[in-house]
Amino acid sequence: MKSGSLKIYHNISPWMSLSEFEQISGDLTSPCTLCLFSGKKGFLLSWAQFQMLRKVCQDLCMSIDLLSRRTKDCAFAKEVCSYRDSGWPELLSKIRRGIRNRKKGIKCRFCGACKELAGLKSLLFSRGELSFSLRPQVFPPNIVPLGSPEYSIPPYSVYIMKRSGSLVYVPVLDLLTVEERIKSFRLVRRIRKNEHRHLKPPFSIELGRVIEERRAILRELSKLSAAAENFALYSSVGLADLLPLLIDDNIGEFYADSPGTFAYIDHRELGRCESSVWVGTRVIERLLAFSASGSGRAYDYLNPSVKASIKTKEFQARVSIDTPPLSFEGTSIDVRKFFRNPTDFGMLIRNKTIPVEAVSYLLKKLRAGSSFSIYGESGSGKTTLAIALDLETPPHWRKYSVESDVAENVTQRQFGKHQVRLLAATGSEGSAERRKKVLDSLLHKSPDYVFFGEVLSESDSRALFQLLASGIRCIHTVHAPSGEGLLRRFVYQHHIPVICLSDLGILVQMRRFDTGGNFARKVVRISEVIRDEVPVDVPPLRDLFLWDAASGQLEPTPAYLEMSIPAQGM
Questions:
Q1: Is 405 exposed, middle or buried (0-12, 13-18, 19+ CB in 10 A)?
Q2: Structural domains in the chain plus CATH codes
Q3: Which of 2, 40, 79, 320 is a Cys-bridge partner for 334, taking CB atoms 3.0 to 4.6 Å apart?
Q4: pLDDT per position as a tens digit, 39-55
Q5: pLDDT: which is higher, 19 or 70
Q6: How far apart are CA 29 and CA 35, in angstroms?
Q7: Rounded to an integer, what distance in angstroms lies between the CA atom of residue 553 and that of residue 323?
Q8: Rounded distance between C-alpha atoms, residue 111 and residue 431, angstroms
Q9: Which H or E run contains 316?
Q10: 17: which DSSP letter?
Q11: Longest alpha-carbon distance in the chain
Q12: Closest by CA position to 386, among listed 468, 456, 477
């Protein structure tokens, strides 16, 4: 990728006057240069946008020169020239009014300037087209450019910059020309007109369906590149500001604590980062509307929280939104995405989530038919590890994947594996009963293996142990602070008989470490239930791998080394 540079203008806005424009009109000769207008709030323009702005301002200067020679005889010319020192958008609106009047047959009595102005093509774009194509990106203050973009997610180039020692994720919309933006605006307008004419209730506002319906209309109207098409579609539903966060498969989760703030993210490679993505009130309102539609439950004063799954061709996510009065500083959002390209054990080893020896042990137990309970705090990487294990199952196994709200697991048909994915939601009493029936029905479907997305309730735990007691192997995730805490939760909160705990296979604990403002996810414990003792309370655990704080690694225990000696001697 080409290295980009950042040209900074202090105390000048993108809506500058013509006198301010004349000071900077000769800048930005390189297509790789970005333009930042720095003041109380920063605004970023790409090179293509700056060139369009330059053309508009140059035509405005020509218009002022033309009209200034006719101010004695023409009230319109006099009025326009009085706005010479105003911002260019206001000046442009005055000139466009004269051009519109001429098209309507309202001609100036003394002056023929309107006819000449109508020949300046950049002044003929509608206000909406110019606003859409020249809309700058809001930019955080005091960041240091690092040069070349790290990678691209068309139509964005992603830069990683620094501010006060923290990394800042900066997606720049520079892979889309101004012409493509204007074309996108016109197509979106035509799509909406088409819907107004032909769309009749009842109709769905589920995001994935809306996007695909509009995609079909868009392709009938014109041909766009894939990047321009996505930008047009998500602009049409008011989510273009969040588009880079939604389509970047390197982002696992992103947050905004209140409207009018910059989002912050959990990046697959970089961990917790700030971002330059501005989350305004309008985009939150749109996301809230689509989330409420996806959940099937309304939100209001008495129900201020919305949890929903959203799935489109471009992304799949679980959205949690809290609105006032619960979130009294304004609506907050938490969007957890699920990677379309799953993390395998090779990547987990490279990013030091788990060592090679522990992976070898888990794979050996998997192929021997063991079940796995993966536990830990929220966001510790439980599901990522569970999917990595599930990807290692033999292709001839018949597998069922049972999940709630949104399918966290990935389809494995492209890997030549037999897999049936079932979505059994939780939440209401009715959905909990349906989920129980789905889990009970697995006993009659002869699965070789069951991926149980997350054990949430007592009903889930009872279904899990019923499967285990029937000899069906499972892998599941669950929230728990420790292995002993997990067993106590099963016994005392979910009322599972103590004797049934011996059906559990391998217990794997995940933990999220805060490493100087960043987060690292690690496997910190691998253990199994000791079955040859009669428990007084809950059965004890035999640790096979434990986290060593001194070395900062997962180390094998003496119990594991004793188990390994016969295998090594064979």
A1: buried
A2: 5-139 (no CATH), 156-337 (3.30.450.380), 345-569 (3.40.50.300)
A3: 320
A4: 778 899 988 999 999 99
A5: 19
A6: 11
A7: 41
A8: 73
A9: strand 316-322
A10: B
A11: 106
A12: 477
CA distance from start to end of the chain: 53
Closest by CA to 290, choosing from 299, 277, 300, 279, is: 299
Alpha-carbon dihedral 130, 134, 138, 141, rounded to 10 degrees: -140
| C-alpha separations of 331 from 137, 261, 325 in Å | 22, 11, 9
**Strand 271-279 relative to strand 166-172, pairing:** parallel
Strand order in the sheet with 42-45: 5-10, 33-38, 42-45, 137-139
* CB-count exposure of residue 351 (10 Å: 0-12, 13-18, 19+): middle
Q: What does the pLDDT look like over 232-257, one tens digit per residue? A: 999 999 999 999 999 998 898 999 99
Q: What distance in Å separates the CA atoms of residue 563 and residue 565, rounded to the nearest whole number?
A: 6
CB 328 within 8 A of CB 259: no
CA dihedral 337, 338, 342, 345 (to 10 degrees): 80
Measured over the CA atoms of residue 112, residue 116, residue 122 and residue 124, the dihedral's sign is: positive
d(CA 289, CA 282): 11
Rounded CA-CA distance 43/169 in Å is: 16
User: 146, exposed or middle or buried, with CB in 10 Å at 0-12, 13-18, 19+?
Assistant: middle
pLDDT tens track for 179-212:
999 999 999 999 988 888 877 766 678 899 999 9
Residue type, 453: G
